[in-house]
Specification:
homodimer; 564 residues; alpha/beta; Aspartate Aminotransferase, domain 2; Aspartate Aminotransferase, domain 1; 3 domains; seven-stranded mixed sheet; five-stranded mixed sheet; 12 strands; globular; pyridoxal phosphate binding (chains A, B)
Chain lengths: 564, 564
């Protein structure tokens, strides 16, 4: 272990003595004329913001990091060379990881129990200490962190709705962290703020709102996006709740499918509605909301004196991948004057596909939409949008007009300072990777990816629907890439249906999953749902996955589950 | 512009035909014995998770990206070489940016108005289209994005509480985005989940809770962390609100300083308390809460029949950098049985300094603490912790037990699946960069950084407190690195105090700031506060800043403001 004593010499700062300034004081300008731009260009040698200096290409050298410490890196005196060499060494580790991620002869994971990792694996020590470690040790820690992690981009990682490792998105994230700024004002994130605006507008156009008008934000995940939708619905109908609290409103109720994401309930709890006022709607056997049940429950709530406020329609449910019938739900929302939110965290991506977007038909009638590009569209985590049809309502709901951030007397158009619309103050730049991927792939690139994933899941469905040892959780071609099924080991195949079989079957998926993780060959999710015992939920969102990986998964389930 | 027609050949997938598996099926194991480890090691050549393959070092070649597209990168057939070359090209852009960030002869920003950037700057087109762009264009877009952005790591960027570009933190973020996983379960983020646990424990030890016991989470920023504190306070005293909503509780009131961060009010609005029930406390002229005012307002609220629930004490206010007297506030909270939260988003870092931690004295009496390592400790955005003294209450407050994520029948100890404690579902990995920085610097490294920043701000204070043309907003040495002052241009120096002077002075800081941004030399924040007209708020958290940069700022203010 390369834990050396820190050296006595501190990393003293070496401010450049050159305090260069443009030759003249240029006063407040609303417009840089062309002439002005020319003048600015002429100053570049003096004071430059130009990054396109192409001769300064890096050269990688063999560096001994065992005697180098964080304090020897920039901004330390002479810190430039060790900084670049250190970053290149990290990049070497990362690019090797990237290569192996796509290599099917590597494991998806190298599983260890928490206590094993906590005890320290071959010198990988998670404990923090008072004294610094050498950069050599830091590089070892980086390698070990990846080694004991899970390759979510591996072609055989099917465990989550988010999977895959998009190279353009990755480059975008590296740039984002290098820029290290914050979305609250145009002042410090001019390019990112504009990218967010343009991208949200494109997304609203795809939803079908006239001219892409409306509002929106990128938020830290679908649960927060869904929470926004409930907040703004409440603000729309009962704006006084913002100042007076929930006691200013009658007893409000929210409606969502029993198959919907738990974040609607979480929002109900957090925002002061109470989970009992989140009314769960019955679904058909495919997991789609039954509109008549919604209407009956609205009437029932009204009869009890409650006030229906909000309906969530799920476009792509987490487990079944079901799309609620948005148009029929929208009819009911219009009839009863309710806010219609569409949770398209998982299914929103299908709007990009001419072949599949009909599954979200009616979404243009929604008041708000959640859409997570980090799921079906392969954008790195986190990237979730809350989109709102009515302009200004996000700001109305959330703004507090903090003087220290949102000064009205700035020199630029402060309507671009969007931070006060958010419940966050600082907000991570989630837009750039997505914008860059869209540039690099075009809308058609996303469409091809989505169509391919849906084709693959249909391939899986066709392969197992009549295969011996498989039972589908619901009949018919899946609407999304979710394929839900039980694997029935030979020992259970002849057994009569009943409690004993149920109990045994309930234990099959967890056992197979545990063995998969131990052997590290593949990962797929399982869960119970309602009265259905544990079943596998296969999802495809990974662009690296192919038919051979689907075949591998089935072979692997059978190999591991055969003797259970 | 290199917008080529996309080529007709798609990036066909090339699944490796090698479907290698370990020779035997290993059944569910709770422990890998040493023998087992040996056996696993023996399998490495077959199926490996090893990243330390040192011979595969990258070689950079000249690549023509004008005919390459995203679809030519991994997972495409023969995609490895273009992938590595593309990533190295991006890294070249990023390392050049890093070098220039620390170079004082470069600008902090190259300011343009929104309409200018939207119209397209020299071929930098923000619009998205249906067709893909070449990788060459993508690289140009990356350069332009940085070119028109703001260098928040520049030694003369003082605009935000978060500033600086820490190289270790940056490496940590690059790794995090390459690992691209999610904090909700141990299953897919084993190493990161453990790092979070260990780091939160260290932070709780620093707060002074016995043995570092308690609970916590990293959340997407201080505003959300503060929102958590209000939610769990409500859950502690009125757990039935989770199921029944705010109508199950009496009229609850929250207390926070008139100088506190606006997120407490935002939380009050969002969570259903209403902003009118967020009672603002008076402060002394240094911006610190007056404890007697708190007690008087508690008594007043009780007399009106309201129920005091929660007090927020700010440790490091946003504008003045004031530390509320925690011990005196804690006495009152104990007396009236209220939840005490300490918002140390900005000041929490001082706990790392033996010299300055006394400013948070009493914090160990808090029920919850917000602490943002992304502010004073220089960790890249976002990195904010909510820390809670009582174990289990976060889960109690937020859990919904989603079956598809938090299966109880996994093979490992599922108490490590922490996702259900959060209001988020997916949660970005914010821990790794912070953990890596702590490893690389040690606690003493953070301490040195913090002490240095406070020394620098004292240097600024000493420099201007009696300087001609300056007025301090409050008297005395600042508690944190915030130095608040007016610059009085010569034209106002002889003017009698009164409305005219106030109006003119109010316009000085915005004008100077606008000129700073136009010339790109430095950035510092300003705002009004209460009845005080616009003043500069200087803060130091950037490790690259030195005394010469402070000198530069003052020179620059005088240069730009002299003739106003």
């Amino acid at each position: 272990m390369a834990t050396s004593e820190p050296r006595a010499t501190g990393g003293d700062q070496d401010p450049n003595s050159a305090n260069l300034r443009p030759p003249s004081t240029r006063f407040l300008q609303k417009n840089n004329s062309l002439e002005e731009k020319g003048r600015l260009a002429g100053q570049k040698n003096l004071l430059s913001c130009d990054n396109s200096d192409r001769d300064a290409r890096f050269r990688r050298t063999e560096t001994d990091f065992s005697n180098l410490f964080a304090r020897d890196l920039l901004p330390a005196k002479n810190g430039e060379e060790p900084t670049i060499q250190f970053l290149l060494e990290v990049v070497d580790i990362l690019t090797n990881y990237v290569k192996k991620t796509f290599d099917r002869s590597t494991k998806v994971l190298d599983f260890h129990h928490p206590h094993q990792l906590l005890e320290g694996m071959e010198g990988f020590n998670l404990e923090l200490s008072d004294q610094p470690e050498s950069l050599e040790q830091i590089l070892v820690d980086c390698r070990d962190t990846l080694k004991y992690g899970v390759r979510t981009g591996h072609p055989r990682f099917f465990n989550q709705l988010s999977s895959g490792l998009d190279i353009i998105g990755l480059a975008g994230e590296w740039l984002t962290s290098t820029a290290n700024t914050n979305m609250f004002t145009y002042e410090i994130a001019p390019v990112f703020v504009l990218m967010e605006q343009l991208t949200l507008k494109k997304m609203r156009e795809m939803i079908g709102w006239p001219s892409g008008e409306g509002d929106g934000l990128f938020s830290p995940g679908g649960a927060i996006s869904n929470m926004y939708s409930v907040m703004i619905a409440r603000y729309k109908y009962f704006p006084e709740v913002k100042t007076k609290g929930m006691s200013a409103a009658p007893r409000l109720v929210l409606f969502t499918s029993e198959h919907s994401h738990y974040s609607i309930k979480k929002a109900g709890a957090a925002l002061g509605f109470g989970t009992e006022n989140v009314i769960l709607l019955s679904t058909d056997e495919r997991g789609r909301v039954i509109p008549a049940d919604l209407e009956a429950k609205i009437i029932d709530a009204k009869q009890k004196g409650y006030v229906p406020l909000f309906v969530n329609a799920t476009a792509g449910s987490t487990v079944y991948g079901a799309f609620d019938p948005i148009n029929e739900i929208a009819d009911i929302c219009e009839k009863y004057n309710l806010w219609l939110h569409v949770d398209g965290a998982w299914g929103g991506g299908l709007l990009m596909s001419r072949k599949h977007r009909h599954k979200l038909s009616g979404i243009e009638r929604a008041n708000s939409v959640t859409w997570n590009p980090h799921k079906m569209m392969g954008v790195p985590l986190q990237c979730s949008a809350i989109l709102v049809r009515e302009k200004g309502i996000l700001a109305g709901c959330n703004s507090m007009c903090a003087g220290y951030l949102f000064q009205p007397d700035k020199q630029y158009d402060v309507t671009y300072d969007t931070g006060d619309k958010a419940i966050q103050c600082g907000r991570h730049v989630d837009i750039f990777k997505f914008w860059l991927m869209w540039k690099a792939k075009g809308t058609i690139g996303f469409e091809q990816h989505i169509d391919k994933c849906l084709d693959l899941s249909q391939y899986l469905y066709n392969k197992i629907k009549n295969r011996e040892g498989y039972e589908m959780v619901f009949d018919g071609v899946p609407q999304h890439t979710n394929v839900c099924f039980w694997y029935i080991p030979p020992s259970l195949r002849g057994m009569p249906h009943g409690d004993e079989r149920r109990e045994k079957l309930h234990r099959v998926a967890p056992k197979i999953k545990a063995m998969m993780m131990e052997s590290g060959t593949t990962m797929v999710g399982y869960q119970p749902q309602g009265n259905k015992v544990n079943f596998f939920r296969m999802v495809v969102s990974n662009p690296a996955a192919t038919q051979s990986d689907i075949d591998f998964l089935i072979d692997e389930i059978e190999r591991l589950g055969h003797d259970l």
